[in-house]
Every structure is written in structure tokens, then in C-alpha cells.
Amino acid sequence: MMGNVGRDTLTGGAGADTFFGSVDADVLVTTADGARDLFMYINPTAENDRILGFVSGEDVIQLFFGPPGPLIQGAAPVAGDGPAVLFDTRNGRLSYDSDGAGGEDAVLIATLVGVTSLAAGDVII
Questions:
Q1: One GO molecular-function annotation for this sequence (predicted)?
Q2: Torsion angle, CA of 104/109/111/116, rounded to 10 degrees?
Q3: Which of 5, 28, 29, 113 would bridge 11 by S-S if both were Cys, CB 3.0 to 4.6 A apart?
Q4: Which residues pair with 29 in a beta bridge?
């Protein structure tokens, strides 16, 4: 499923769903149905989608931009010297930092509503 220009609400059904995050802040809704849902992002300037119903260990977020880096999670996570995916366990915000401690700020990709931790395979670059 892919949203159009503007803020959309996309709701998945039973079984595996694929969501494409667009450049506007969309609401992506899935359910814990035992199927793997895929959330794909091809643009590092996505405007903070809200993902509802994400299940760690079942669903996957795939980023199609930037060099790969580790998943760093915690309260106000900070990247090291290289690229990293950052997950703030306090508020569910998932960001990508392309240069670590360099001059570029991390880009907020999505907020995973109600999610407080991620498994290593939940985010793929």
C-alpha cells in the first residue's frame, strides 16, 4: 500500500501487508496476525510516519538509503562514528543517522506507537 501526496491513513488486512512510506507523515496501521508486515522507506526525508500495531520479531522496517549501520536503542540513543539506526525506547521514534558523530543530524523516519524495544532483525538497511 502506498499513500498519495498528503497525510494518509493506510490500514492493512489479514495476512502479510507491505506499506511504502511516502514523503508526508502518514498513519500506517497493521495488526498482530502472525504474518510479517513490511514497512519500506526509500527516501531519507520521510516525515515521521506513525506506525500502529508493529510487532517486534514479526514485522520488518526496511530502509533503502544510506550505508548500513547497527541498531542502537535506549533513552535518547546516540550514534558513534559511523551510520546507525537509532530507536528511542521512551517514545518509539526511529531515526537514521548517516554519519554518526559527523555534522549531519539524524533523520526521523517513523514513530512506532506502543513499541518499547526492537530486535536486531526488525530494521534492515
A1: calcium ion binding
A2: -70
A3: 29
A4: 11, 52
